[in-house]
Amino acid sequence: MPDTHGRFNPTDAAQQHPLISIQGRFDRGGSFLPTIFTHTVVGLASAGAIGKRSLPIRFWVFSVLCSIIPDADVIAFKFGISYGHFFGHRGFFHSLVFAGILGTFIAILFFRKHGNPVFYTLYFSILIGIHDVLDAFTSGGLGIALFSPFSPRRIFFPWRPIPAAPINPERFFTGRAWEILWAEFLWVWIPVLVIAVVLRVLLNRSRNKS
Predict the structure, then answer these.
(1) How many CA atoms lie within 13 A of 134 on its CB side?
(2) How far is the C-alpha of 55 from the C-alpha of 203, rounded, in Å?
(3) Contact at 8 Å (CB) between 166 and 32?
(4) What is the pTM of this model?
(5) d(CA 132, CA 144)
(6) Is residue 181 part of a domain?
(7) Cβ–Cβ < 8 Å for 38, 134
(8) What does the pLDDT look like over 37-85, one tens digit per residue?
(9) Which domain holds residue 51?
(10) How many domains does the chain have?
(11) Is residue 69 part of a domain?
């Protein structure tokens, strides 16, 4: 439910949905997430680690889209759907079930003629799920409904080293932009890029032997 200034109050959301567990911090002015830059890096690194040269360009496009698409649920605010609602931000569309459904849909619709459909289903589903897991490492907003629709509980992980970035670009760039990006670079970019390089080397060796 919006307050008198049109902002969505997580306490009101919890009252409307009493099974929701509010954790973390909800700052004034909106909801929070890792930046789109970081989610994009995850998508590109994943495509670079797994992809083959023979794959179409849409493999890279969908790798990036899948890394950021759960946050499209912020459009719910425009329709008066509260933060804590089942379909609200970080709700069902941030769940592992939704990741599996959308990953399967993308694999069947766009990649059925490009090899093993099981590979693409797992790849895109995991990539979407990584977004949800990363959000659970942030320090603000409501938690993530990882296990929706089986459980409406919003969760965070006990260790949350990533400062939450506001969705509103104006608030981000006039606030703690460099602090947030540095934390994401340290805790997400470096580990993801290292894993991607190692995985790429291992896959190349395996392909060369076969």
Answers:
(1) 33
(2) 15
(3) yes
(4) 0.79
(5) 7
(6) yes
(7) yes
(8) 899 999 999 999 988 777 889 999 999 999 999 999 999 999 999 999 9
(9) 34-209
(10) 1
(11) yes
Structure tokens at 188: 């997400």
Whether residue 143 is contained in a domain is answered as yes
| Residue at 21 is within a domain | no
Query: Which 3-state string (H, E, C) describes the chain?
Result: CECCCCCECHHHHHHHCCCCCCCCECCCCCCEECCHHHHHHHHHHHHHHHCCCCCCHHHHHHHHHHHHHHHHHHHHHHHCCCCCCCCCCCCHHHCHHHHHHHHHHHHHHHCCCCCCHHHHHHHHHHHHHHHHHHHCCECECCCECCCCCCCCCCECCCCCCECCEECCHHHHHCCCHHHHHHHHHHHHHHHHHHHHHHHHHHHHHHHHHC
Instruction: For tokens 């659970």, name the residue.
Output: 136
CA angle 126, 130, 132 (to 5 degrees): 120
- What mean pLDDT do residues 186-198 have? 96
